[in-house]
Amino acid sequence: MEPGQRHVKGPASPTDEEEASSNFIMNCLQIITKTLVGIIYSIYSIIHLAYITIYPVEKSLKNKVILVTGAGRGLGREMSLQLAKEGAMLVCVDINADGVKETADMINGGRTGKDAVADHYTTNVAEPNQVNELARTVEEKWGKVDVLINNAGIVASAPLMENTDEQIKRMIDVNLVSHFWMVRAFLPAMKKRNEGHIVATSSVAAFTCAANIVPYAATKYGVTGLMASLREELRVNPSNNIKFTTVHPFFLDSAPINVKHWEVKSALPIISIPQVASAAIRAIKRDEVIVTVPEILRLLMTMLWIIPQKSADFWRDTFNTKINNV
Ligand SMILES: NC(=O)c1ccc[n+]([C@@H]2O[C@H](COP(=O)([O-])OP(=O)(O)OC[C@H]3O[C@@H](n4cnc5c(N)ncnc54)[C@H](O)[C@@H]3O)[C@@H](O)[C@H]2O)c1
């Protein structure tokens, strides 16, 4: 074309139009087919879920190396004790040296050396250098970690403007950022073996909202998002065999230092630590992706998401799960 000459676009040739409309029909057919396949697959999944609920398939945890963070007390200690009863070898990790040693001692019950089935490490999981050092030491001693349970967590309840900067930063570091350090330290070895299971203790706070725990709830939403997206990232590989479980407990009859943070006036009773631990372990054995304790919580929380905001607020007010400002 000469410089300055205008390019006049003629009407689309009948061939272009035909091609465009046949593409459109093909796209529509593809969407309809995918939707139908999706509906059939969803029905199959619901029937399969009902079947495996009645006839569950559970993997054995015997001789599996399981690392639990926050094992120095509370839920982490209880999970460690129950896992030991399943025949697992426990790597107990906590920032509290006395607490974590006590947990390992309780499991070993006097067994030492080669007979010991539990080991303990004093690690601040919010510190990436300490976490990497932990991974090196544990892999050297135990060869591998089959199940990684990121459970350590802290809470400080107050209206957001009364939380100190340090409290907010610390909750984010311990409850959320530590999961990144732990996963990044232990996932590569799991990927190499194409085997492993990563578990996170989240909370009911990841599904709903509550006053006076704004930073805590944000960290639990974060953990749930991290776990779901990481699972998705690995699912891209069709032969991936690394599993993910996120545990969402309601309020626990936890250590007094935690319990003072809330005053629950809810239709749902406070749950016991052994109840959460056994639900979490059952979910690990069944490769369940999400578990709420109690189970009904999942349905209730889903309903809160679906119903109009005003009625969600009404239900929340009615059951009044109140977090104190301490
Ligand atoms: N207590 C509840 O009502 C409740 C409800 C839902 C979810 N959760 C979650 O369950 C998990 C366990 O809660 P819990 O009630 O057993 O708490 P807990 O305070 O009794 O135990 C937490 C443990 O984590 C350890 N820890 C804290 N910071 C650490 C760090 N930086 N590095 C390593 N270890 C550290 C503590 O020393 C302690 O032993 C937490 O993630 C918590 O957010 C608790």
From TrEMBL:
UniProt xrefs under InterPro entries: NAD(P)-bd_dom_sf, Sc_DH/Rdtase_CS, SDR_fam
Membrane topology reported for the UniProt record: Multi-pass membrane protein
Compartments, as annotated in UniProt: Membrane
UniProt keyword terms in alphabetical order: Lipid metabolism, Membrane, NADP, Oxidoreductase, Transmembrane, Transmembrane helix
KW Transmembrane (keyword) present: yes
PROSITE patterns registered for this protein in UniProt: ADH_SHORT
Recorded GO CC terms: lipid droplet; membrane
Transmembrane spans: 31-54
Pfam families: adh_short (PF00106)
GO molecular function: all-trans-retinol dehydrogenase (NADP+) activity
Domain of life: Eukaryota
Similarity comment text for this entry: Belongs to the short-chain dehydrogenases/reductases (SDR) family.
Function per UniProt: Catalyzes the reduction of all-trans-retinal to all-trans-retinol in the presence of NADPH.
Official protein name in the record: Short-chain dehydrogenase/reductase 3
Lineage of the organism: Eukaryota, Metazoa, Ecdysozoa, Arthropoda, Hexapoda
